[in-house]
Structures are given as C-alpha cells and as structure tokens.
Amino acid sequence: MLFFTRRRRRRLRNEPLPQGWLQVLEQEVPLYRRLHGEDRDELHGHVQVLLAEKAFEGGGGFAVTERMRLIIAAQACVLLLHREPTYYPRVSSIIVYEEEYLAPLTEVDECGVVTEGIDRRSGEFSPEGALVLSWEDVVAEGLDVHSAYNVVLHEFAHELDAEDGITAGTGGFAEILRRNYLQLKRSVRLGRPTALDEYGAENPAEFFAVATECFFQEPLSLRAGHTELYRALSEYYRQDPAQWGDSCTSPPGS
Ligand SMILES: [Zn+2]
C-alpha cells in the first residue's frame, strides 16, 4: 500500500467522530450496539476512512443522506474489524435506491437454454465496481434486531470473496465452505430448515454471503447448527459474534 494512502487512512482513523454520529450508531445500528468497547473504537476509525473514500450515489433520483451513508458504512465496517483493512478496493461507488429495483436478468439452464427477464433486487455487488443497495431493505433487515438477514453484510461479503478469492480458492476454508454448501443444498432439497437461508444453496458465492449474514446476525444459531462453519468463519473474520452482547438491548436514550 502506498505510504501516502496509509498515512491518510491513519489520520482519518484518529479523527474524532463528527457530532451526532455516535447517536445514530447507538440508536440505529443494532450490530454496533452488540460490539465491545474496543471494537466500537476500531469501527469508528474504519467508518471514517470508508466514508472518505467511497462515493455514494442515489439510484433513480433517491436522495442519500449522511445518516444513511453512516448506517451503511458502519455495517460494512463490522466485516473489517481485527483485520488489516483494505476498505473494499473493488467497490468504487455505492448506489442506493429507495426500494427494490429492477435489473435485467439472463439465466442459462443446464441445457444451455438462455432466458432473458427482469429481476427485482434488494442489492448486488458488481465486479465492475458498483455495490447497489435498496434502502428499504437496509432498514427492514439491518435495523431490525430480530432479522437473520442483512443486505449490507451480504453484498460487502461478496466483495471480500472477490478480493480474497475465497470461494474460488482451494484451501481449507474453501473446502469447509464447499462442504457446508453441499449440505445446505441437500437440506433444501429435502425440505429441512437450517439456520442458513436457502438462498445460500444457489451457488458457493451466495453461500458465503448468506453464511456471513447468519454469522453476524444469528451467531448462536449458526454455532449450534453448523459448528465447523461457524469456527471457520470466526477464523476468517477474526471475530466471535456469539460472545457479543445482546442486540435486543435498547439503545441509550430510546
Ligand atoms: Zn448475493
């Protein structure tokens, strides 16, 4: 990493949080409320770097406010804690739509038949550099303490996968992910519910993104039902969310 980049990031991380940000984090980001004190301090620094480096745009004329940017960045930065952060180099801009948006879809089945259609999406990460989110889904999932889903964690996990070559890799972590992915496919086929959302059975990349959501949002269920997977994710993220506080704790002042 360039010396100047490293120095600029260090300076940003050491700046005090702008007024009002702490209140937004405490009141509107359940994941933040569950973090221990030193993790919160680390997150404050990462959030300031991410917000300084990434361009946010409103899709379809949607006005993205500072509060929205902060809520999105805080959740994205939870994935960076305890690591040498690279701040999602493959994301050049974050596009936020007011609600689910329509996108063209091309599907190819096993016989090679191509179907063109339109897909409703709550978010996506494009390898070309845009990460897209539906604000309505960010609120419905990330701001609900009882939600097993988190579209922000999901899409940023796709970036980490692309950046680190996780699901395309061959190491022990990739092997554990692949084994658990095949298990989920089998459970879905047999109609057996698991802690993981069945969307993870789509392909290995979706499995990693879904497993990441579950790891942070429902760590106790994941650890109980998928111990090996929980341990592998815990090693990758260098975090143990099952030891965090209770997200149901009321935010201060609410
Ligand atoms: Zn996905």
Explain what this protein looks like in three dimensions.
This protein has one domain: 3-Layer(aba) Sandwich (Collagenase (Catalytic Domain)), CATH 3.40.390.10. It is built from 11 helices and 6 strands. The chain has helices at residues 3-14, 21-28, 30-34, 37-53, 66-78, 135-142, 151-164, 172-190, 204-217, 219-225, 227-237; strands at 55-58, 93-97, 101-108, 114-121, 123-125, 130-134. Mean pLDDT is 92; it is low at 249-254. The structure holds zinc ion.
Let me know the number of strands: 6
Please state how the strands of the largest beta sheet are arranged side by side.
1-2-6-5
Q: What small molecules does the structure contain?
A: zinc ion
User: H/E series, N to C?
Assistant: HHHHEHEEEEEHHHHHH
Question: In CATH, what is the homologous superfamily?
Answer: Collagenase (Catalytic Domain)
CATH topology: Collagenase (Catalytic Domain)
Q: What is the rounded distance between the termini?
A: 42 Å
How big a fraction of the residues is strand?
Answer: 5-15%
Helix content: 40-55%
Shape: globular
Question: Which key phrases capture this entry?
Answer:
binds zinc ion, 254 residues, 11 helices, 50% helix, Collagenase (Catalytic Domain)
Question: Brief description of this entry?
Answer:
The protein is of the alpha/beta class and 254 residues long.
SSE blueprint:
Elements: H1 3-14, H2 21-28, H3 30-34, H4 37-53, E1 55-58, H5 66-78, E2 93-97, E3 101-108, E4 114-121, E5 123-125, E6 130-134, H6 135-142, H7 151-164, H8 172-190, H9 204-217, H10 219-225, H11 227-237
Parallel strand pairs: 1-2, 2-6
Antiparallel strand pairs: 3-4, 5-6
Residues 154, 158, 206, 209 line the site of zinc ion.
